[in-house]
């Protein structure tokens, strides 16, 4: 071989121009390496998912006629190769190749590591051809701005990519935003369609992880793994979403229930983050489903979905590249409490948290509003250190890759970025949770009480959060009403609430 091309575990895009022709001189390399499996404590299903998808991708490339070298964790460890670049360097020397190429990583850490290595050996970086915006599009759009308004970025993306636009370059229905229609609460008799599962035995990966003493979190029941790991499976999952769940996606995107972990969400983040599916084909499929049956799938459903992908997803990537590496250390609210251990065990009497955490540990999945308004909200109003919160989110979800995890966690959810992403913190009392879910009905705590042994911890923590950050948020026009409500409580009630909050914080491990 003359040329070695590296593929990372989240670069499994068989439609990339690299694969348009078969070249006998070129070898593609994929490595399971220890540094990647241990840079945080990953969910066991996350490591399993990446290794299975990488192995299947190597087989697929061979099927297409390409030359592939795949090194398992057993092999890279036996050769004492810890990091990606150690693996690349070893193989390049072994094969005597003269050219090295890699695809631009989405992780800052790997970007630096590979750039340094490429400079040393004269390697070349190529685009992943996955995203619909360039790394620095967002930075250019918001140059000199204190806040990056997602809505502005999203409209720009709709225009630029001609998605749901009319012939005059205006939004197809004359309206950009359907958020008001997308906050529905679940009717009593609604059913949840079963989503396709791709059940396979993953004992061999569980044993591999065990053999190398890799610390993991979460659970994988009976070593069965159910996420799609090949492109064919991912396309089937996309079709299943468009056929069975897209019709209610927008309306109930903020709803939560004890009866179903997925509701009408897509569960396509792993498929997209590994690049087995492109964002363009995902939104094209959703728009086509809407166009084929606009009576069943109303516009607000498809617009809500498109917004998540060409809006939030591309936007977060832009924020990441505009703000790294400093973003990894921001803590503008100066929060410093440890996150309770029950985030890792699920053992809490708070029903909403018990559901959101146990579901995350069982499935490596929680939908957006569980992440933002249950686990994230609690950590925020508690005052947990963003490092702890990041460690949990980066580990627990199958889709957790730093570019999209840290921006959502430290930025959107924990507001450690000083308000770059959100104009107002995503904090709430039990009132919101009770409105949007059925969690409170069967909870040990009383969602109406603010003080007393059975008072819902969210209530006192919520007011405590507002009170301790009064200077910062009082002037925020979107929060004026909240501060007025706090004033109206009078000093006696305020003191009782703050005392209860202090107790909750001190006893957070036992809630
Ligand atoms: P759906 O609700 O069906 O949405 C469809 C797609 O839109 C998702 O697959 C995803 O690709 C995209 N999307 C939706 N919201 C966002 C968002 N806020 N940012 C980026 N993309 C979005 N997403 C990750 O992919 N990886 C993460 O590590 C991650 N960490 C998060 C941490 C916190 C604290 C929060 C609040 C959100 C996080 N998200 C993350 C965003 C979002 O919650 C997940 O993308 C989503 O829950 C994945 O499930 P789904 O495919 O069913 O999503
Ligand atoms: Fe969660 Fe409080 Fe409701 Fe219990 S009462 S489910 S802790 S919001």
From TrEMBL:
Question: Which domain of life does the UniProt lineage start with?
Answer: Bacteria
Q: What class of enzyme is it?
A: lyase
Q: Output one GO MF annotation.
A: DNA (6-4) photolyase activity
Q: Does the keyword section mention Lyase?
A: yes
Where are the coiled-coil regions? none
Q: What is its EC number?
A: 4.1.99.13
Please report a single Pfam family linked to this protein: DPRP
> Does this entry carry the keyword Ribonucleoprotein?
no
Looking up InterPro entries in the UniProt record yields: Crypto/Photolyase_FAD-like_sf (IPR036134), PhrB-like (IPR007357), Rossmann-like_a/b/a_fold (IPR014729), UV-DNA_repair_photolyase (IPR052551)
Q: Which keywords annotate this record?
A: Lyase
Protein name, UniProt field: (6-4) photolyase
């Amino acid at each position: 071989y003359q040329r070695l091309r590296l593929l990372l575990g989240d670069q499994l895009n068989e439609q990339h121009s690299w694969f348009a022709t078969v070249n006998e001189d070129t070898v593609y390399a994929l490595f399971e390496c220890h540094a990647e499996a241990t840079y945080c404590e990953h969910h066991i299903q996350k490591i399993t998912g990446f290794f299975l998808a990488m192995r299947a991708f190597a087989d697929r490339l061979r099927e297409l006629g390409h030359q592939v070298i795949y090194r398992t964790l057993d092999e890279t460890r036996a050769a004492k190769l810890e990091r990606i670049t150690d693996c690349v360097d070893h193989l390049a020397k072994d094969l005597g190749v003269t050219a090295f190429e890699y695809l631009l990583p989405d992780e800052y850490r790997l970007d630096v590591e590979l750039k340094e290595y490429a400079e040393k050996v004269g390697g070349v970086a190529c685009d992943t051809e996955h995203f619909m915006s360039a790394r620095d599009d967002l930075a250019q759009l918001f140059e000199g701005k204190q806040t990056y308004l997602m809505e502005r970025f999203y409209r720009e993306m709709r225009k630029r990519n001609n998605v749901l636009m009319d012939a005059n370059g205006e939004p197809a229905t004359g309206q950009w935003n359907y958020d008001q229609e997308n906050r529905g609460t679940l009717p009593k008799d609604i059913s949840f369609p079963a989503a396709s599962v791709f059940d396979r035995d993953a004992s061999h990966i569980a044993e591999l992880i065990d053999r190398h003493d890799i610390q993991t979190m979460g659970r994988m029941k009976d070593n069965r793994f159910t996420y799609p790991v090949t492109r064919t499976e991912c396309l089937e999952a996309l079709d299943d979403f468009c056929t069975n769940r897209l019709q209610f996606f927008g309306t109930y995107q903020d709803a939560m229930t004890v009866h179903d972990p997925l509701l009408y969400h897509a569960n396509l983040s792993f498929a997209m983050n590994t690049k087995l599916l492109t964002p363009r084909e995902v939104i094209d499929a959703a728009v086509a489903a809407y166009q084929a049956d606009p009576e069943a799938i109303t516009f607000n459903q498809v617009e809500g979905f498109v917004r998540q992908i060409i809006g939030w997803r591309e936007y977060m990537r832009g924020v990441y590249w505009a703000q790294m590496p400093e973003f990894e250390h921001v803590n503008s609210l100066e929060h410093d409490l440890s996150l309770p251990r029950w985030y890792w065990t699920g053992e809490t009497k708070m029903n909403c948290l018990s559901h959101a955490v146990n579901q995350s540990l069982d499935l490596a999945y929680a939908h957006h509003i569980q992440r933002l308004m249950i686990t994230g909200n609690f950590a925020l109003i508690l005052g947990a250190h963003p490092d702890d919160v990041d460690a949990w989110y980066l580990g627990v979800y199958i889709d957790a890759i730093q570019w999209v995890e840290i921006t959502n966690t430290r930025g959107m959810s924990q507001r450690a970025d000083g308000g770059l992403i959100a104009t107002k913190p995503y904090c709430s009392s039990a009132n919101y949770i009770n409105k949007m879910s059925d969690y409170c009905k069967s909870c040990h705590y009383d969602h109406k009480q603010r003080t007393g042994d059975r008072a819902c911890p969210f209530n006192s923590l919520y007011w405590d959060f507002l009170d301790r950050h009064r200077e910062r948020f009082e002037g925020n026009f979107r929060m004026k009403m909240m501060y007025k409500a706090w004033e109206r409580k009078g000093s006696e009630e305020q003191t009782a609430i703050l005392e209860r909050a202090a107790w909750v914080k001190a006893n957070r491990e036992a809630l």
